[in-house]
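Appendix B. Extra example for self-study. Work through it before the problem class; the solution is given directly after the inputs so you can check yourself.
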Amino acid sequence: MSKTLQVRRGGYVDSVTLMQVSKTVSASPGVTAALVAMATELNLDLATSMGFDLPASTAPNEMLVAVEAADDDSLAQALDLVEATLREAASPAPTAFGAAPPPVTVGAAARGSGATVALVSTPGEYAFADAVDAVDAGLHTMVFSDNVPLEQEVALKRYAEDTDVLVMGPDCGTAVVAGVGLGFANVVRPGPVGIVAASGTGAQHLMTLLDHAGVGVSHCLGVGGRDLSADVGGLSTMRALDLLADDEATDLVVVVSKPPDAEVADRLERRAQELGKPVLFALLGPGRPDLTAAAERVVAAVGGAWQEPSSARGSVETGRPRGYLRGLFAGGTMCYEAMLLAAERVGPIASNTPLAGGRSLDDQLRSDGHTMIDFGDDRLTRGRPHPMIDGSIRVDRLRAEVEDATTGVVLLDVVLGLGAALDPAGEIAPAISAATAAGLPVVAAVVGTKDDPQGLESQVEVLRDAGAWVHGSNADATRTALSLLRDREDNS
Amino acid sequence: MKPLAAPESVVTAGVSLLADALDQQGVEAVRVDWKPPVEGTAAAVATVMGDRRRKPANALALERMLTAEATLVDVRPASEALGLGPGEFLHAGPPVDWEHASGPMRGALIGAVLLEGLASGPEEAEQKLATGDGLRWEPCHHRGAVGPMAGVVSPSMWMFELRDDVHGNTSWCSLNEGLGKVLRYGAYSSEVIERLRWMNAVLGPLLQTAVRAGNPIDVKAIISQMVQMGDEGHNRNRAGTLMFLREVLPAMIESGGSSADVAEAVRFVSGNDHFFLNLGMPACKLQASAAAGIDGSTVVTVLARNGTDFGIQTSGTGDRWFTAPANTPDGLFLGSFGPEDANPDIGDSAITETAGIGGLAMATAPAIVRFVGGSVPDALATTRRMYDITVGENPAFAIPVLEFRGSPTGIDVTAVVRSGVLPQINTGMAGRVAGTGQVGAGLVTPPMACFTQAIAALADEVPKA
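Solution. Structure tokens for the complete assembly:
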């Protein structure tokens, strides 16, 4: 066995790209473990847990290259592979004589181009500066980043208001502007529905349900999960409504959110009444209609014909005896909606993002009775890609659930679309097969359209082949999962 | 508000997968080559970027830089022009005491003491300087002046006096001595002192007569032209020098001076391709001074080195210096000199970069890229890169090879620490040992620590919300 840990200075590569490099290197012959990552606290811990000795001090802008291999030859080859993949990942150098080097700030990029929109996905602790730079340049700005401090979000949105541009996000990675998807977005048909969403996967789910029913979308503006809180006060939501009011392609506006702060809700209500266009509210909360019901209402409002979301039976017809429901989600709103529906039936659900009255999970996210985990939560995406981009953390968890005798039924989501992993179903399918082979039923809600790059049909096919129950509606999937629970008194 | 239309291009910073997703949709992703801000600056960067005064303040700084004028109105001794008294000297860069002064700085001060007749020889001069003994020195910048290399000015030296009537500023610089063994590179041998005496006795008065006889000379207009003639104004001043000579030559001939003196003066000026540097520098100082003292502005108004430390000032932090040990330039060496002979970076001449020429306008001077150890594509790429760390462009200094794009102007501290890209300085190299003179020329950057201190100070100045 030979191993090495190198620390390199001077080159920054984003975490998603480095995950892909790590994966490629891990899979090369003779390599037993590989980590290529920026030296963030999280990655340092990871390297330690993999058995590498850390140098005395490192800085977060340094890169760790840690490889363990069967022998020296394999190690050398793996390091060559690291070089090659990193080189490939680096921005191409200008080749033409006198060609401009790539811009180094958002403002510089905006100056030299005809861009009207910026998409900022830098780490949350730095994203504010990049977003301000974009607003300075007069660009509508989508902040994909998680973990942006609240006071920076408020300052940014106030600035955008005064500068007359729209800030989308942060922490709500979805927007479609006139058919162009920014961040996580599904490829949906154009149409009359304008969506304002304080919830990323909520917006994606609504779009795909509408698309399934033949109803298209003019724009989908994700305004950030905190936008309708008392602190942010709906700053971006109000601006998004203004934009949609003036937008000729939009006939009907839908606001997707968790229930807003009461005072913000009042203002939102007043603004909606004077918008000059019908506004429907799809506010997820206890005792409120789920997203699928909301979609049905939208379809009716534009005179469309509702199409029931697709569904397919899985290979395991019943849950493991006395087992609990375990939800493993990539989408925060998917997790929230599932918890709302499940809590009505089986009582409080333990979660890392619990509903009021639900138990909080410990830092190890150990299951505690009926449990649902949002792997896309801010605290879990620090220094690591969103699970919709890289779902390996969830795959590992599903395998652990199979081993856990208290797990009765697993519910999960598979989110397709632009920005998402190229084959999310294929990534998790082997673990699903392992589950179903062990008699553990898995129910999957698939959010996607036939035009998404991954292809809805083929992704559903992969999940079905693995034995999963597959639904085009998260609410339907949750109800199916609940119905599979067996020998539980709480499942009334 | 800009209506919602399908974007044809989108600026992307961060996760490259998301930029790829735009490519897949046939939308151009303008990818930022993003890095985290320089270590330890993230909080200050956020504070300063969030300062609502920043954008208008920087716009004002740029406007003032672009509207600043620079006309040569007089030539006279420093004692008169700056009120420099006996035993008072000016020098380049941030403040420095004898103990910390580098070889060339010490050499230049020794030479100046000899020139002023305050010591009988170098040993006595050195001893007086080391003990203080009635001698005082302070940065040129503290008096609105600038000095190349050691930048030492003594009371009897003749100074160019330039005015910016738009902003009411005046700036000064000594007369350029030529290359090789010269005071500004720390040489103080008798030939150096004799040349300075001749400049005081003959060249200065002739230029004074010529300048006073004609209309004020528009130095900014000469810079505009020289930038289109292959001079970047720091390491190449050939066209500028000849254009200046063209302006003053008739009046020098008519001055009544002896034809031998006039001929000697003309030979001296036309034989020194850097003569114009000492006119370009105060013109640049006027441009930078116009932008000084604007609350909330993150624009750099001084880049200066004393051979030991590099110092910068910013518009929003007034006359505070942010200093760190100067880097040693990287480039080519004269004769048998090598890297071990080079002193760390020295001189106020980086005021040219502060004003958007010099290294920032490298693209306009392909003739000297080899002299500083670069290539023509490097030169083009350098200037293009500098646009990313500056707040605007100066149409008065248009660069032909970049389709007459204005030179990158107004170095922005936030852009420097956010990108890690430092301003490019194009400079001469002084010998490390006092008395050596010039040993080469090359490229250098300021130490990043100047900018990290500046961003912290700028953040402290931001009013609490």
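Self-check: The CA atoms of residues 331 and 374 of chain B lie 8 Å apart. If your reasoning did not lead you there, revisit section 3.
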